[in-house]
Amino acid sequence: MQYAVSILLSGVSLGGQYALIAIGYTMVYGILRLINFAHGDVFMVAGLIMVYLSAALPLPVAAPLMIILTVALGFLIERAAYKPLRSAPRMSVMISAIGVSYLLQNTATYVTGGLPQMYPSLPFLSENITILGTSTKWVTIVTPFLVVALVVVLTQLINHTKVGMAMRAVAKDFETSQLMGIKINSVISVTFIIGSLLAAVGSMLYFTNYSSIVPLSGTLPGLRAFVAAVFGGIGSIPGAVVGAFLIGICESIIKGSPWSIFSDAFTFALLIVILVVKPTGLFGEKATDKV
Amino acid sequence: MLQQTKSKKGPFLALVLAAALLILTVVLENTLNPNTNIMLFTTLKKGAVYALVAVSMNLLNGFTGLFSLGQAGFMLLGAYTYAIFTIPVADRESVYYIYNGSAVNFSLPDLFGGADTVPGLILGVLIALILAGCVAAAVAWLIGLPVLRLKSDYLAIATLGFGEIIRAIFQWDALGPVTNGANALKNFPTFSSFNITNASGQVVLRLSTFAAFFIAAVCIAIIVLLINSSYGRAFKAIREDEIAAEAMGINLARHKRLSFCISSFFAGVGGAMFAMFANQAQARTFTTAMTYEILLIVVIGGIGSVSGSCIAAFLYVAASEWWLRFLDAETTIGAFKVPFLRNGFRMVVFSIIIMIVVLFFRRGLMGDKELFDLFRPRRKKKEASK
Question: I need a surface site. Which of A7, A88, B344, B364 has the fewest CB within 10 A?
């Protein structure tokens, strides 16, 4: 029982952290039809920025500053690497995304000297708590609630504001929305800003649990979050969240079993099965392939 | 028609160029001191391996238009197949010491008289290389059944996932007697085994770089022949427009599968060569990052250009391993310490160069042209553009 609770708790919290990354993937994919391979690395860089900022500044200043810097990074990446390729074939944009990911990883290796960095322990979040006989950190409890709250805010934003309406229009039809006078570039920038913001928050939660950061530590969470986004139906925010929670729980169950080496293999096997059986995912809209 | 007039002189020139290159490698390796020029030969060998893998990826991504990111996975299959079948029986105990010996208790070179003899080495390595390719192709066929139904980026992410799954399986403890778990496989014949030694163990004729070039050249030649055949034209038709290709009577599923399997075959051979180059096979090296590296080579060379991929492979390896090395060393000129130079800076500069290529020179070095297209008289270009 105690074991089951601890597995479930860590699964839910992991799922929440993946959800925050997955939303960034799903929104960008919904609008640009681009798998933003650099998103996982933005998440990693957010962690590193926090490490360096918290060494120099008090925490209440460092945390917001970290979020602002991460958002700026996401915005910059979009402007520098994706915007010039707007009319290029989709493959070029994807290659550009891979290039950005490569650049971020190498820069991180350069800055850290290749040594793992320890994430600062945050007050309250890092403190221990005992639930049903299982000792865990506060962050585990806080994550799911925070995720749900953020998602509610986000869906309100998308459904009831002008920017949100523009986003939905662009996701539906790129060219037509341009003709309707929507400034696509600013809409896309907003998408990247929201995605990076959530990734920054996610990194704060994730690295409180797994406190060592190496340049590659963004890759796998990023890929898992992407799988979650596909699982839930790409382009759908609630879908991404549900998918992320499911993936997180599955991963934590497998990690606790003797098959732990296959946890990533399972995630990807799941991805392939979904793509083949139901490519639109759990909540995805029916795709209309334009010929 | 244009196609036919085009390729009259090309094959002959290519053959001459390849032969000249092969002779040059033998001459270089036997005249230059191998100890002082170690970087040159490492670059040449690794470049040859990467050229083959890049061309195999180009066949899939550039010529058939299937965006696959599973190359590292297929290389891993090839490397392990090669290693498992060529480790001498006598060495198996020491390589698999954790698992008390290997489950596979024969070795191909040993069947032909051992890796020290000429027929044993050549036949054993050759058969093992072909086997490596076949295993990769067979797995590709299996994976292709579900995966090839997917389109563009979904295909990319599914094949990427496949690479991760393969890596996990090969590191699995239960398969230890075959794959040696997470430990490296070693002691199999490498490129250096091709150096001819005399009775006292002194090297008489160095052929290690030649061996790498020769295998890569033969494989690339086969791929080029395939691309110029009717199959190759079918692949290109699929790349340009799937629906139109289908309307012209091309069996989409069959040709996609064919392209996927052949590409994986050569990726498998390339993986085996990588194991020969690195003197060991370890699942940990065949990561997604390796696939990205190869993809970037293809992009730099020009998507859809075989000669571009080859040139880019050598440039890429030379730049990342050799020419940019100085960026990693802290340097002082007089009393002035050059800023930024320290470990890791090389890769930062390198990735910035790659980003510049990706953003501003989207067609890469060669675009979709081949080397020989550049030397053709201009008149023909005008005619073609009419």
Answer: A88
**CA-CA distance, B280 to B271, in Å (whole number)?**
11
A107 contacts on B by Cβ (under 8 Å) = 348, 351
Measured distance CA(A229)–CA(A24) in Å, rounded? 9
Are A275 and B171 a contacting pair at CB < 8 A? no
Mean of pLDDT values over B73-95? 88
Domain count, chain A: 1
CATH architecture of B2-286: Orthogonal Bundle (1.10)
pTM score: 0.86
What span, in angstroms and rounded, lies between the C-alpha atoms of B139 and B142?
5
Residue B253 one-letter amino acid: A
A260 in a domain, yes or no?
A: no
Which chain B positions have a beta carbon within 8 Å of A114's beta carbon? 343-344
Per-residue pLDDT for B384 more than 60?
Answer: no
How many CA atoms, within 13 angstroms, populate the side-chain half-sphere of residue A271? 31
Quick check: is A190 in a domain? yes
Residue A263 forms part of a structural domain: no
pLDDT in tens, A133-182: 677 778 888 888 999 999 999 999 988 999 899 988 888 888 888 898 88
